């Protein structure tokens, strides 16, 4: 029997990766995270460095940490190297992992992403917010699309191979007046 969705109990909590080192290390080593994130030791080193122009949070369900989310502004060189150089300056990139296997497929990642996007757009909004995943990570694609991200393009990541870049545009598009009925 499939577990119920948990979206009402999802929250983002302050996180200091150095303080949460043991928890992050355990999650990064879990097979379901390692499969998509790669080498746990290298990733832990990355997570222990403060994100450039961004932040990090624990994903909690009913006050229990179940995952991690981080956002940062990639450098122009990083974007160009990935073939994403046309994205606007200041685009935010999100990385997310649900570390506790019991919380996979229950709407937690989608809800956490919606909460984060709402938070990021509450102050001066970045021009766009992106999240990327391997083309064969179908669960992540479903979660990201459920959170409002749209598949923008395929690109080749030097480390992970073929990836989808999904975007949420945060720039408001002007509304055109509706034609008047005749």
Automatic annotation (TrEMBL):
Residues 10-168 form the N-acetyltransferase domain. It is an enzyme of class 2 (transferase). It comes from the Bacteria. GO terms for molecular function: acyltransferase activity. InterPro entries: Acyl_CoA_acyltransferase, GNAT_dom. Its EC number is 2.3.1.-. Keywords: Acyltransferase, Transferase. This is GNAT family N-acetyltransferase. It comes from Thioalkalicoccus limnaeus.
């Amino acid at each position: 029997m499939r577990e119920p969705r948990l979206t009402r109990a999802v929250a983002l909590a302050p996180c200091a990766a150095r303080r949460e080192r043991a928890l992050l290390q355990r999650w990064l080593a879990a097979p379901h995270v390692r499969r998509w994130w790669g080498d746990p030791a290298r990733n832990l080193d990355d997570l222990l460095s403060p994100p450039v122009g961004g932040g990090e949070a624990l994903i909690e369900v009913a006050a229990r940490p179940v995952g991690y989310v981080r956002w940062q502004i990639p450098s122009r060189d990083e974007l160009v190297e990935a073939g994403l150089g046309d994205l606007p300056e200041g685009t935010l990139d999100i990385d997310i992992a649900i570390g506790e296997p019991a919380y996979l497929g229950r709407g937690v990642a989608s809800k956490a992403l919606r909460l984060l996007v709402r938070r990021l757009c509450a102050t001066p909004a970045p021009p766009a917010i992106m999240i990327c995943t391997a083309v064969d990570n179908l669960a992540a694609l479903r979660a990201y699309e459920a959170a409002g991200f749209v598949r923008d393009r395929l690109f080749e990541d030097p480390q992970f191979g073929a990836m989808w870049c999904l975007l949420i545009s945060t720039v408001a598009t002007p509304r055109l007046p509706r034609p008047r009925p005749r």
